[in-house]
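lol so apparently i was supposed to do this last week
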Amino acid sequence: FTKPVLAGTNVVITAGGTQEAIDPVRFIGNRSSGKMGIALANVAADMGAHVTLISTVHDPISSPNIEEVHVSTAIEMQKKLEEVFAINDVLVMAAAVSDFRPIHKADQKIKKNNDQDLYTIKLQKNPDILKEISRQKTNQFVVGFAAETENLIPYAQKKLYEKNVDMILANDVSKAGSGFNTDTNEITVIQRDKEPVTWPLMSKNDVASKFWEFYENNIKK
Ligand code: PMT
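anyway here it is w/ PMT bound
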């Protein structure tokens, strides 16, 4: 049992990896399982928040405080987020968004041609959802993640400023037990004008609890 300290707080969380269709059976995707975003949604819901979870994967232990919206592509995720952003107090963007999508989706399964060893798929840049939604910020506390394989802190700090967000939860996805499709994560918290703080490796559920406790104690008005 958790005290409903976030009752009256509306949060929107994105989770999972976007899938950008190449043809009816193939897509460009990534290794995100949705576990990090779903943990953030479940802990916020336990603390009494109303949660909109915009996710590419289904949350099997969803609470009545969670309104789950299923999306596949970055464009669908952006559209749904734009619908709900204004009525929320917090956005946490835990989804792994594909930076590119195929320009064309083939109507039928692409056939391999025996004379052809190379096949080219032209990609088009996807919108930077976090950067664009941050332009519509009024009072929202906006949190992004940074998934890096090197230079964790400088790259994450760059994202904090370029995407104009309030906080970045940076994870070194090359470290064992951290990042994609694991039950644990090691997070470095990046904020404006503050020294980065690294939390020890812990379960994604504990990361979520630590984040929402931080929000409740330091940010919530
Ligand atoms: O789902 P899990 O298996 O539990 O794994 C968790 C995770 C590794 C996916 C998660 O902890 C994480 O790091 N999520 C962000 C992944 C990512 O896309 O990071 P990025 O550094 O490429 O992007 C930075 C931020 O911008 C992210 O908040 C991302 O959601 C956002 N973004 C990125 C690209 C884009 N076109 N639009 C965006 O909004």
